[in-house]
Amino acid sequence: MTPIRLYTWSTPNGRKASIMLEEVGLRYTVTAVDISKGGSQTPEFLALKPNGKIPVIEDPDAGRTVIESGAILLYLAERSGTLVPGAGDRTLEWMFFQAAHVGPMLGQLGYFKNFAPEKIPAAIERFDKECARILRVLDTRLSHSAHLGAEAFGLADIMTWPWINAGRERLGLDFSALQSLSRWFAAVGERPAVRRGMQVPAT
Questions:
Q1: Cis before 3 (ω within 30)
Q2: Per-residue pLDDT, 202
Q3: pLDDT digit string (tens) for 131-180?
Q4: Is the dihedral of CA 150, 153, 154, 160 positive or negative?
Q5: Domain 4-84+193-197 superfamily per CATH
Q6: Which residues pair with 58 in a beta bridge?
Q7: What is the pLDDT of residues 59-75, one digit of tens each?
Q8: Short-list 82, 78, 73, CA closest to 156
Q9: What is the rounded distance in angstroms from the CA atom of residue 105 to the CA atom of residue 167?
Q10: How many CB atoms neighbour CB 127 within 10 A?
Q11: Are 88 and 178 in contact (CB under 8 A)?
Q12: What residues does 8 pair with on adjacent strands?
């Protein structure tokens, strides 16, 4: 099998793809796309992904380019026959929850807290409160299930964990009082493939 080509950077969305590739054991090469220097806005990258966001994968053997992190995870699950969502589990629901709520809200909080040229207290407060609510939602789900999509580790966990990690490390989100979320976060973070995937790309 020709290695999958991964175009990525050290962001929560980028880490979803590298963790997934490590989990399913497919060979891959890495092209680091430095988004801080406009690497995702070059004509070459935009030809792969017109939205100008990482990650992207190319599968030479299948002649496929796949964009959007959730679609990449589903494609790699099917390609490898590993972590394929079960018919009766809730993987897709919690993948969509991450894409619609976790990533966008933590991303907005990160912008207004860390990158906005002007600190706007009302915006920071609004997204702080929404992120706290989202963490409680995840905690409630995890009080009923070992993992987000099902009892077993799966795609919804890969989708969500890098964002919760970034929220803790970069945004100062404290969920230590949320026992189920804390238990899940620690367990997923101990997985060898997660640890390896979090080092990609080596920047």
A1: no
A2: 86
A3: 999 999 999 999 999 999 999 999 999 999 999 999 999 999 999 999 99
A4: positive
A5: Glutaredoxin (3.40.30.10)
A6: 5, 65
A7: 999 999 999 999 999 99
A8: 73
A9: 10
A10: 21
A11: no
A12: 32
* Alpha helix segments (H runs only) across the chain: 12-24, 43-48, 69-80, 91-97, 103-110, 121-142, 155-171, 179-189, 192-197
pLDDT at residue 88, as a whole number: 86
Cα gap 202→31, rounded to integer Å: 10
- Interatomic CA distance for residues 133 and 6, integer angstroms: 33
Q: Where are the domains of the chain?
A: 4-84+193-197, 91-191
Provide CB contacts within 8 A for 23, sequence distance 6+: 82, 83, 158, 191, 193, 194, 197
Which DSSP string corresponds to 46-73?
HHH-TT--S-EEEETTTTEEEESHHHHH
The CATH number given to 91-191 is: 1.20.1050.10
